[in-house]
Amino acid sequence: MVFIMVLVLNGVIQDERPINTHALFLEHPVYRETATQLLSIPTKTVSAPGLLYVCQREMAAVAPHDRNVNIIGSDDATTCIIVVVRHSGSGAIALAHLDGNGTDEAVSAMVARVQELAFGYPEGRIELQLIGGFSDAQGYAEDLFSNIMQSFHKHPLEIDLTQACVGELNTIVRDDINWPIIYGVGVNIKTGEIFPATFPDKGPDLPLRNARYFTGSHQVLDIYDSAVGMLRIGPFNYDPLRGVDLWLAQSDEFILKHLSTSPDVEPPHFAMQVRATLRYIQDNQFPAVTVFRNNNPHYFRRDETTGCWTPVRY
């Protein structure tokens, strides 16, 4: 198959994708300006009502007229990158929290979902925004940026990069250590406004959702069924994790050092969240049997009164 290379940078179609973030910012200073604008916005703490939260190795797509969602977002991205794809005409948005696994499939799925939701809106372009991924010592985020750019560059549609708050632009030095400036973003689905954000409530089934990437599942899971307006988790299986008891017996410092790609700069709840996930895996070694009975997904509907996700009982 021959792909048409149609990544658009600063309004110009590119023959080659940028080799790294430094080259991108050198050749296209406009991305420094847009990143500076994003970084100047105060971080908002977003509460659960009206929120569609996307975890690591997940994606979701939503249209502006969706009555169940006001904000779509993700946080806790250190070496990960949050990817936002938006159709400028319809306002349809897909957001993913990518870590290098399943990137090609996720990129194709995000663009396809946005196109579906934009059906009937002939005017508009596909815009791409990348946020997160600081200048870490191991270069994980730089490799991920390259991986994401490659996936979008070989996509047959014209895709316009409008924001790249990544790498050096999302890095601050404290005590000789590089830190991310923005760990998360929210997107207002009505206006398309993107802003730095933190999410104390990350939605239902969190240990189950996190168990997927701890146990080596490489797929990026689409967690929202926009046709019925419901959050949808699974069904999926994962391999049993050996030595869970040993991990749980370790100190928070040990867990941080050995289970994080960036132990110096993780948010304070990292070890607590890992422990909750490990306990879940310990209790549910075969989720296809104990969690997703009859192979049914877990569905959650927006509660009219509280605005939060509540389980759908069958």
TrEMBL record:
Q: Look up the record and report any one GO term of the cellular component aspect.
A: nucleus
Q: Name one GO biological process term.
A: ubiquitin-dependent protein catabolic process
InterPro entries in alphabetical order: NTAN1 (IPR026750)
Q: Signal sequence span per UniProt?
A: none
- Please list the GO terms describing molecular function: protein-N-terminal asparagine amidohydrolase activity
- Coiled-coil ranges from the UniProt annotation: none
Q: What's this protein's name?
A: Protein N-terminal asparagine amidohydrolase
